[in-house]
Amino acid sequence: MKAEFFGSMIVFMLACFISVILEYRYLIYAFIIISISALFYNNFIFPFVAGTFLSVYLAKNKNEIPFHTSIALIIFGLYMLGYIIPEKSYAWASAIPDIMKVHTQTLLHTLGSACIIFATMSNQKVFKNLNGKLLRGIGKISFPLYLVHTLVICSLSSYVYIKLSNYGISNTQSLIVVFIVTATTSIALAVPLSRFDDWWVNQVNTITRKLLKEKQLVH
To answer: What are the transmembrane regions (predicted)?
Structure first.
């Protein structure tokens, strides 16, 4: 969670820097300088920087890309996300310069994620198919689920597993029960946390819009 915490702070600072100071100018130069600095400072920070600039680009450019291009980018993105070591279908990655080898996984995974996001947001057909009620709901609770599932596993799920083992229940049956308990409890906790997150984001957006409006009035 350390990387996520500092990454979130960087996203907020970058958003202010891009909108208030740069006023959406010189984005390419800013991206190159800031992303290189982030990459060599901390691998985990780079994706947050790349994601922020991609978000700005998508907000300012509403151009549609063809459906087949979108699908190709999604497939390419998934391929990039599969990289672990430069072997077999990823043998080409061994040609990356030595100075960048330690950052290879971060670079390729970030590129893959960016391709998928760009492809999804730049084609309405793909976007609408992935923006249905079910998938949108899963997306809304994904982050709260990420936050609570470890706590559930280390507390209630572990307790249930120990109790079932003490009663002589087989390991397979115990794991099935524990999976059900973990899934249902995690979702039950993630839903209200998701609603709180929605409320909190609305509060932050309201304050931000007010500050930006005041700045415009001053100028």
So the answer is: 6-27, 65-85, 106-123, 143-162, 174-193
Handedness of CA 71, 72, 77, 79 (dihedral sign): positive
CA distances from 89 to 10, 43, 52, 113 (A): 34, 24, 30, 19
Residue at 44: amino acid letter: F
Domains of the chain, by residue range, sit at: 132-219
Q: Choose among 217, 201, 216: nearest CA to 20.
A: 216
Q: Which residue has the tokens 């820097």?
A: 17
**Side chain identity at residue 27, one-letter code:** L
| CA 53 and chain centroid, separation | 14
Host H or E run for residue 28: helix 27-41
pLDDT tens digit at each of 219 positions of the chain? 677 788 788 888 888 888 777 777 888 888 889 888 888 888 888 999 999 999 988 988 888 999 999 999 999 999 999 999 999 899 999 898 888 888 899 999 999 999 999 999 999 999 998 888 888 888 889 989 998 999 999 999 999 999 999 998 999 999 999 999 999 999 999 999 999 999 999 998 899 888 877 766 544
Q: Could you give the angle at the alpha carbon of 25 between the alpha carbons of 24 and 28, nearest 5°? A: 105
Contact (CB, 8 A) for 184 and 148: no
